[in-house]
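Dear U.,

For the methods section draft, I wanted the exact inputs and outputs in one place so we can describe them consistently. I've listed the two proteins in the order they'll appear in the manuscript figures. Please don't edit the token lines directly; just add comments below if something needs changing.

First protein:
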Amino acid sequence: MKLCIAEKPSVARDIAKVLGATMPKQGYMEGNGYCVTWTFGHLCTLKEPHDYGPELKSWNLIFLPIIPKNFGIKLIPNKGVEAQFKIIERLVAECDEVINCGDAGQEGELIQRWVLQKAKCNKPVQRLWISSLTEEAIKEGFEKLKPAEDYKNLYLAGNARAIGDWLLGINATRLFTKKFGGNKAVLSIGRVQTPTLAMLVQRQKEIDAFATEEYWELKTKYREVIFTAAIDRLKTADRATKGLEYLKGNLFEIVSFEIKEGKEKNPRLFDLTALQVEANKKYSFSADHTLKYIQSLYEKKHVTYPRVDTTYLSESLHPKISGILHSMKPYSELIAPLLEQPIPKSKTVFDDAKVTDHHAIIPTEISPSGSLTREEKQIYDLVARRFIAVFYPECKISNTLVEAKVGTIPFKTSGKQILEPGWRVVYAKDKTEVSEKEKEEEQTIPNFEKGESGPHDPFIHQGKTSPPKPFTEATLLRAMETAGKQVDDEELREMLKNNGIGRPSTRANIIETLFKRKYIERKKKNLIATATGIELIDTIEDEVLKSPELTGEWELKLRKIESGEYEANKFREELVQMVTDLTRKVISGKAKVFSLHEEPKIEDKKTREPRIKKEIPGWEEINCPKCKNNKLVSGKTAVGCLAFKDCGFKIPFEIFGKKISDRQLNDLVLKGKTSKLKGFTLHPEKKSEGILTMTSDFSVNLI
């Protein structure tokens, strides 16, 4: 018997269907010589300090740094996890061969390897590596299974990352909390979290320290075209007034007139970060939400694997492009011109040298039906249009540069006209905000003759200098990708990705962690460092902890481990040394008082026994309330029946615009109703609060 282990039940069902393993069992599917089971994401985690010694449960400086001789793993303490692991453990013991069907990425490899390690697997292991969950892709993947050994370096890199995060996170958090927290707060430090916060704090300080200055510019209108004086901005109104008087006394003269034809390159295909950036700019989606929406589209088979950091396709995909375009019926009008001739095999799209484990995010040949949420449709539209746009011709433009003078004062203007829209046709209906500068650049400029002159209408433009812009999630993601360097050029940005901080799949979680810790807050689209976040960064004197460049160097080493160019043990030794040096430095340094910028809590005079939280049963322990024959499973967007296709029962995590917690969902399933809740934003009758109830037909109502 061959045992397939997927990362979640929904993926396991897709694989089981293709393999013919259609007989449902408790915790797995069976048939045709296969058993297909699943994890729920992480079943295992690195052991905690107290697992290495009970004395380490206490947060005490005398025990730091905590450096386990050998790092161990353990099951996540959860009844559902423990029950599912026992099933996997038994199946591993009974099978002849294991096929690792985890997500085809570093984290997916780590999740599965830890489970197999915990299950003491000594059977041959093969690896399924696919970029989409369509039936064709799964069949093709099983025809091309590879030995697990081929992915050993991927696992070593993932393991080194987890250990590195543990070493720094556990030790630095305890170190700074005990030294500076004053028993008031946990000061959370992380390998990627802290330099990300440092970038936000640095920007916040630049904004706070910025002194706005007024300035004046001389401008004039000649033949309906606005020209700007090519001199330094004037610091006083008096000088501007004198300049204006001078302009009024002299004629306008054209010094040079030049038109250059050029091209605007097509946008690149999306990697995860670029998609998150675009979704934040266009729809104000957080990075975390975008990741959830694109992951859901992947699991529904509409797009390829999303947790990628390349904007290229492998050359072997070229023959399949026409078929994918043909299947995208809602976009047929835009696609028709592309199918009139062969799809070009451009190096800006197809380049094997730029593709490692996966290619860029593109649509699959399975076009979405009407079952998508509004947000999923918006994300799919971004991916679909970008996929179409890369195969259109380049946009042809003409750039006009005009130099002139009024007396001795030089003037200039420039203009840009689109001659042939090319790929811009795909985005013709997009409404974008145009800045004043862009409006001037897009002004239509007539033909001028060198030496021509005439009267003109001079005027003064008064403005104010602007502080640096606060980070949005879009600009912060770009800064994380380039380790804080401001890079607009796409090719240069591609080169810097290896030194970015965090991975595409983890950056959204890092930002969310900063929100949860109350180190940053959101004001409209802007991300603002809180007083607590600023004070934490000011407390950390060691640049190693808060430098994006140094963190980027660690990230590069992790990528080198993945490619076999660097030793995982060496990376660990370097981090152990760094943590040891940091501990000595901070313990021997002067303590500061860290103040908490939060509302004080009023203590109840009566001594109360601490409340013991009731443990919520795992979904895998709860019977489906509708069919009562199968257990429930938790997916990315909803909790539903294990046999959902037959039964149809599911409850989404977001109801009427409000995220519902596990405890509230638990009440809804087991009790048929929740307590009174607030914060509903999308109820058809505009209700914002009420009790969620389960109706007789197993839908959800708000009363």
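Second protein (the one for the lower panel):
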Amino acid sequence: MKRTYLTYIFSKRVLGYTLFFSFFTLDHGFAQNRSQQGSQVLEPIVQKIVAEANNNSQLESLAFELLDVVGPRLVGTPGMTRANEWAVAKFESWGITAQNQKFGEWRGWERGISHIDMIAPRVKSLAGTQLAWSPSTKGKSIQAEVISLPDVKDSLSFHKWLPSVKGKFVMISMPQPTGRPDHNWEEYGTKESIERMKVSRDSLAVLWNNRIKASGVSANSIPAMLEDAGAVGILTSNWSKEFGANKIFGARSYKAPSLDISLEDYGMLYRLTEKGISTKISVETASKDLGNVPSFNTIAEIKGSQFPNEYVILSAHLDSWEGGSGATDNGTGTIAMMEVARILKKILPNPKRTILIGLWGSEEQGLNGSRSFVLDNPEIIENTQAVFNLDNGTGRVERINGSGFVHAYDFISRWMSAVPAHVTKDIKTEFPGSPGGGGSDHSSFVAAGVPAFMLSSLSWGYFSNTWHTNLDTYDKLVFDDLKYNVILTAVMAYKASEEAKLVNREQRVLPAGTDGKPGIWPPIRQPRRTGVGY
């Protein structure tokens, strides 16, 4: 896996060829490893890491405690506070120093019960829940008629219609023409019926967007306008294009409760109202507004013995949305990095460099926890060897990008070569790669010039099934894959901590953009340290 001088010249001088030559060389190196799996000799420390990860895994118990007992971890909620406190206690039980570091505050909110029932033209319990930070009915039942947004000609017509919402629940999402995901249609549908379905869906989307546009206001502004006009509640349905899955985000109303209704029940309500049948629902919610509450990062560390003021950072965000329990986003990243820390503390209690574990808060609202940490800890940022970040589901790591650091090939390849070949054999790499401007917490460090890497994993239907949905729960975890990730991360962190010196941070010259202007390294961005205006 040794890079040739010729490859180095190309990566330095002819940037248009960087990815091709660097990727080719690395793939060849790991192909050699794959052919020599039987003869690979693991270092004694690595052997112990693998044995501990496989024979004494704590992943299932960590997942149970975090996902089933603590539950979802929306910023500003008691669930997030419980998660911060649980993580500190768990680290300390392993002999790892930990604390919660405040970086800001957010609008405090506590979820209560949600009872949603159709009471006319017949009785049926509806599948749905409050959106995050939604106002409540204060524990009382509100019974009212359901109506939908009208197909108006222009803004004047929309404002003339607004008074009619007083005392009613208003549906503001497009009804889906099919509740079957595309893969189900492709398995069973005829070519003709699939085409008709897609044309119908696309046409409906255009018509609905035109309906919103004709109102003269943005879709995000409509809930506040409706409640100001006297609507008693807002009904939405944000389908995730998979059976039973809806995206559950935050409310944009401040007085009337906002509810997400399942595709199936929302479609029924919409059809009834569109056919002129009087439809009523009964809603009872009991959430609480808690005022402003502090926001924290949970920070733990295993102190270095030789270079205690130099760092290898294990990164994952602890917060989540809360339609489910935040299992694959990002309970999996959290428990994997905690398990890595546990194993390293047991196997390598005195690493050369300090192993720092950052479980970030408010990632979902804009990487706020990690961005705050970068700005608040310049001495750590200046002396960080590498950051390894896990944040995209339950699958095995399949891809590592060099994040735009010219020499990433050298040190990443060196660290990966110590990992068991059966763990690395299918991992694709891109060097030097490109710096990500956002998406997950490694971006906060990359912007500050720190070699930080997203350990990207196999999908397992992540974006349609679990990402920010009501189905993001414990049962979606694949523990065998998570063990692979623990072994990979633990070995790479060990090797990074043992390097003789800090790695070279030289950044690649980025190619020109579509506008012809030179590429610019992503800038450090200010975090939101308050929920005001979010």
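Candidate sentences for the figure legend, describing the second protein: DSSP finds 18 helices and 16 strands in the chain. The radius of gyration is 26 Å.

Thanks,
Y.
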